[in-house]
Amino acid sequence: MVQHHSQLRLNPAEETIQLGLVQVHFLVTGAESHGSVAIFAVGIPAGAQIPAPPHSHDTFEETIYGLEGISTWTVDGVPIEVGPQQTLCIPRGAVHAFANQSSSVDAKVLAIASPAAIGPEYFREVAAVIEAAAGGPPDKTKLVEIMRRYGLTPAPPSSA
Predict the structure, then answer these.
(1) Which residue in 47, 58, 80, 140 has the fewest CB atoms around it within 10 Å?
(2) Is residue 69 part of a domain?
(3) DSSP string across the chain
(4) What are 54-70's pLDDT values in tens digits?
(5) In a domain? residue 3
(6) Number of structural domains, the chain?
(7) CA-CA distances (angstroms) from residue 5 to 9, 32, 34, 95, 132?
(8) Predicted TM-score (pTM) of this structure
(9) What pLDDT was estimated at residue 158?
């Protein structure tokens, strides 16, 4: 007997979260993948950088696949440009950040977290802190607290 998966649908976790200039568009979360993977597109407008401090995570790999434009990912102090159809796997424990400051073209990447140790909840909380800053610098103490709670380790300022 063939089992039908009536719950299957395209982009099951569709949700877009605005983080300052950066936009995170969730496609699959751990809820849909039984914890194996989270997949989200990240739009990085020209001139934008990550709205949180450089960080590492010990519970998942993050693979970045370039869709549009060129984004710069600094991993353990080494800047790596990711363009369309290029892939960068950021290992657990590697300190990283991203930006799109060397290009006048908006960039978009697909981010794949495996296992799905992070989801939209983290980004919603970060978005709330950025929104509360009303265009000013976000409260770093609150951002760091949220990051730590979700298993992200902010890098010491000297390693940024």
Answers:
(1) 58
(2) yes
(3) -PPP-TT--SSTT-EEEEETTEEEEEEE-HHHHTTS-EEEEEEE-TTEE-SS--EEESS-EEEEEEEES-EEEEETTEEEEE-TT-EEEE-TT--EEEEE-S-SS-EEEEEEEES----HHHHHHHHHHHHHTTTS---HHHHHHHHHHTTEEEPPGGG-
(4) 999 999 999 999 999 99
(5) no
(6) 1
(7) 9, 12, 14, 39, 41
(8) 0.86
(9) 54
